[in-house]
Amino acid sequence: MKDQENAAKLAAQRQQEYFDTVVNEIKGMDNIRGVKIPEKDKQILLEYIFKPTSDGMTKFQKDWSKSVKNLIESAYFTMKGDTLVKAAEVKGQNAAINKFKNSLNRAGVSRKTNKQDNTSTESMWNSFARRLRAN
User: Fold this and answer.
1) How far apart are CA 19 and CA 50, in angstroms?
2) What's the rounded Cα separation, in Å, for the pair 27 and 55?
3) 28-68 pLDDT per residue, tens
4) Do 74 and 17 lie in a common domain?
5) Residue 3 and residue 59 in one domain
6) 20 with 32, same domain?
7) How far apart are alpha carbons 82 and 89 in whole angstroms?
8) Helix 124-134 vs helix 68-107: angle between axes, to the nearest 10 degrees?
9) By the 8 A CB rule, do 117 and 106 touch?
10) Which whole-number Å values give the CA distances from 23 to 42, 56, 90, 98, in the listed order?
11) Residue 56 gets which letter from DSSP?
12) How far apart are CA 93 and CA 20, in angstroms?
């Protein structure tokens, strides 16, 4: 009987330590893998993870258990983490560079001379206004 009491106390102590670790980690974060976390979202996140609803499950547990895809996605993102974030950053940078190059091409800027094509009959102001509308 005494061993069961000690085991229960030890389990409760470990559970409290885990909770404290998560709370301190979230409070100390300003971003998750580069995504900013506003201060107001930190408390909401803690409640999402830990606060049980009337059925005893947390909102996170309910959302996570809705689909096997959630298990697969969370496992994959946990496994690949930073690699996926870096790949997304590179893809975004490449998309931005391509958009800029296309913008220069539409504006008539030559890659070789870096000069604008002034043979167009369009006025400079119309060209400028058109580019502002496009972006």
Assistant:
1) 8
2) 27
3) 999 887 789 999 999 999 999 999 999 999 999 999 899 99
4) no
5) yes
6) yes
7) 10
8) 180
9) no
10) 9, 20, 32, 42
11) S
12) 38
Domain boundary among 34, 65, 96: 65
Query: Which residues, including other chains, have CB under 8 Å from residue 106's CB and lie 6 or more apart?
Result: 131, 134
Distance between CA atoms of residues 24 and 21, nearest Å: 5
Could you say which of 43, 65, 87 is where a domain stops? 65
Helix axes 39-50, 2-28, angle to 10 degrees: 150
71 shares its domain with 135: yes
Token pair recorded at residue 101: 């190059």
Q: What domain range is 32 assigned to?
A: 1-65
Find out whether 21 and 14 touch, Cβ atoms under 8 Å. Answer: no
Q: Are 103 and 118 part of one and the same domain? A: yes
Q: Give the 3-state secondary structure of residue 26.
A: helix
Compute the distance between CA of residue 67 and CA of residue 36 in angstroms, rounded to an integer.
27
Q: Are 58 and 48 in contact (CB under 8 A)?
A: yes
Residues 40 and 74 in one domain: no
Model confidence pLDDT, tens digit, residues 19-29: 999 999 999 99
